[in-house]
Task: structure prediction
Amino acid sequence: MTSPDPAPAATESPGASRRLWIVLTAVLFVLATVLALAWPAGGLETAEEPIPQRRFGQTVTGERFGITPRKVSYVTADPAPKFGDPQPGRFLVIELDVTNLGHDTATTEALAEQLEITTSPGGALHRFKDRHTQFVVRDGGDDRDQLHPDLPEKVLIAYRVPERYPDPEHITMTFTDSAYGAGFQSTLSSWMDGEVLAAYSADLGRAG
Result:
């Protein structure tokens, strides 16, 4: 007695293969669309931490500078006339306690470059073009600009308010840290911009 031949194995028809490929393509398309929409919205990445808010009188310590803003004034008299020749204009005058925490001597200009000033109403002040002066307040003079390591100093930084801006009523000052290290174009280490450490806010009185 002979056994019957085994039934031939079932094979997948071309139509079924096409349908499976279409389903897989559709699923991949949906996933790609979801990823493309979620990524810019921040759904798949860590949200940026908000900038810490500080008041004048509070200390923030970075890698290069520790600062305590003490006072901000809005004035119409030149706070530091050169050679006794005051310039006309409107000025924001910021007074800070500063300690250089780095290993080398810094300048008040290097400190000022880490500050961003915004007035309201008005807008942002250019940290170079609108900066009027900066110096160490000591012995009644305004000609010192060096900040030596671990030596606390009082610093004054003045900005000229642009003519197109109305009288400011509020100020926000953002303080960016400095980080010491090598850059992309050089193996030599230097001070570079680091992370934003804090935003200080204060109301302004009438110009005097």
Notes: The radius of gyration is 31 Å.
